[in-house]
Amino acid sequence: MAELDIYWIGLLALLPGVALVAGRKLILRSLKRSTDPSEKDIVGDQRQREALAKDFRRTFLQVYLLVMGSEWLQGPYLYSVLRDEKHLSPNMVAILYTATYSTAALFAPFTGILADRFGRRAACLTFCAIHSLSSLSVLSEAIPILVLGRMLGGVGITLLWTAFESWMVTEYNARGLGFGQTAIRLSDMFGIMTTANCINAILAGVLAHCVVLALGSKTDPFMLGLALDAGAALLMLRTWKENRGVGAAMAVMEGEINSTSEGVSQRKSSWFRDLMASLQDRRILILSMVSSCFEGTIFLLMFCWPGALKEAYSRGSGRDQDSKLLPYGVIFANFMAAMVLGALAFNILMRRSRSLADPSCSTSTLPTALLSSSLMLAGLCFLAAAFAKSELQLFVAFLLLEACNGMYVPSIAYQRGRIVKDSGRASVYGLMNLPLFLFVIAALLTTAEDGGTHRFIIFIFCAVLLLIAAVVSFIGLRDSQEGKGDFIEVPGFDKDVDTCEEEKV
Predict the structure, then answer these.
(1) Nearest-CA neighbor of 334 among 401, 408, 407?
(2) Where is the chain membrane-spanning (predicted)?
């Protein structure tokens, strides 16, 4: 067990930091409520708006965290199941991963469009069904079934990355929460999603490790994920309303659009125009390029880190790397703990910028600066990983990479939420993911080799790509954020600094 100490020590060192930073707000808020009688004076419409905002947050997060928990239970063990339990070659594992992202690339242009047309809730329910079938496929030893399962997983990825966030943003706008001066802003929702999701992933990683130790098979976390998918589907059926394009949904509620063929044709025409206008927006092209670079390199990291850590252990100890029994769930929990610290840093910086600086400046330039900074630092971390000599150095570089990931996720989500129109949000998100899937496919086709020299080249390539993306994002997005009206206003980012509330964690 001594050889595994660095991962347990890392987790024990990170968890107090996560608890301290995340819990600080809750403690301060409770003290403020107990000593500040002014909060008791909040009555009428404001109290009702706050209650609606909290109900919306709870309604979304309880479903979102269940489906993400299912994914996090399985993620750390997929590579190990294929390599260690099914004894597939590195080349075959790469082919299975490629099947996932090839399918995702094929369906990316269509899943978002179908979600906008037939409903985002329906798309989320479809994800639960597809993800469950994909999980069941790992029980089989037959290559065709494993390939089919990975292909279903690819469809699931496109739904997971488009439908849930699209439902949340559209529902947030439809309820008028941002314009109602509630304490939960849209940027706060992105920060809350990332923070809660990372804490969720920490718990899922440790739980998956315990399940594997108790039951003896690395396929057992996949079966536990089935129960979470089923619970999420039941909650969606009970608590979520369907939404499509916000323009059409709001018009239907107000009785402004009739059910005639002419009205339907007008809605389709408006949706198509919005979609085409979005795809011609230079900022959306920049975001697609940035997300392809960052998220693609993170996928390569997830594919490479088990072998990289094993090889570093072998190099430092002189033992065969197959003797290294990595606690995959614990390492994954470390990664997620680092990621949640990055997300909390985003929350804190955004809150302080709203309270200390000119709000019209902070809400337009700071997210871009944070996005570019996370890309730049991630590139430097990949350089450090490429030249790391010991297992500990490599592990620390990976932790820092995940911290950058934690800051990147709410930053890019803020940019997407600000730029993309609600009427075609899921469609645009799906198309924006297409370059990412193509990038991952091309990268996976080069990862059949399993040697350290090959991983060194991959890490150097990732570093260069991220440094380029950092420069492009800073130049391309900064110039368009001067308050000239070409951005879609994000509900909740008010011009009045006095309306800023304490950040919700």
Answers:
(1) 401
(2) 6-23, 63-82, 94-115, 122-139, 190-216, 284-308, 328-349, 369-388, 394-414, 426-445, 457-477
